[in-house]
Amino acid sequence: MLKEDSRDKQEIISGDSNTAGSGVSRREFLKLGAVTVAVPAVVGPRMVQAGGAEVPVHGPGRVPVTLTVNGKRYQADLEPRVTLLDALRDRFDLTGSKRVCDRGECGACTVLMDGKSVYACSVLAIDAQGHQITTVEGLMQADRLHPIQQAFIDNDAQQCGFCTPGFIVASKALLDRHPRPTPEQVVKGLSGNFCRCGTYFGMRGAIAQAAGGAKPAAAARKGA
Length: 224
Ligand code: FES
Ligand code: FES
Prior knowledge:
The protein is of the alpha+beta class. It has a domain at about 60-215: Roll (Ubiquitin-like (UB roll)). Helix content is about 35%, strand content about 15%. The protein has eight helices and seven strands; from the N terminus they run ααββββαβββααααα. A five-stranded mixed β-sheet has the order 4-3-7-5-6, sandwiched between helices. It has a two-stranded antiparallel sheet with strand order 1-2. α4 (about 145-155) packs across α7. The chain binds FE2/S2 (inorganic) cluster (FES) (2 copies).
């Protein structure tokens, strides 16, 4: 018998502190560790039969995810349960979209997906692949604010500001759909977003300004 083998057995029998307490010697433990490290952290999807078709099953481990955000490609290995909002904020450092309710109720996380407003907290990052995502950061025009962003400033349309990025993105979707929205269309277009500070008057002024160059609401109030 090899010397090493007999030493390993002796360690197991003696309960030496070099054994892992579970009957595994330090040498065996290191061998096991080497095997574990060699297993790749990212695996491709398994294919299963469902409804007569082969469908991919992702996870539960991390899978490669590629997103197109503001015209740029972002890649990360993410668990399939990760939301678009968490991917944007925690992996890609795009923190303009805010996490407030994290359950599809407040609109603070609103982004555009192929031009339509969606709650980023309610879309899985893995499902956002292949779509064009636009966040509030993507509305900037070079180093200048988008006219809607400027209109929110001009109309004093924020207080704490937590809801503001979501409202600006929702306003963009509204004005893309209705360049000259009626008051009813404004109410409907922003109905998925909440402002706890109650800056709705300013927001309506901002949308009127962005839509048609109306005077800022504050100036209009003073009769400027
Ligand atoms: S954080 Fe997404 S809807 Fe509130
Ligand atoms: S400005 Fe504070 S929640 Fe809207």
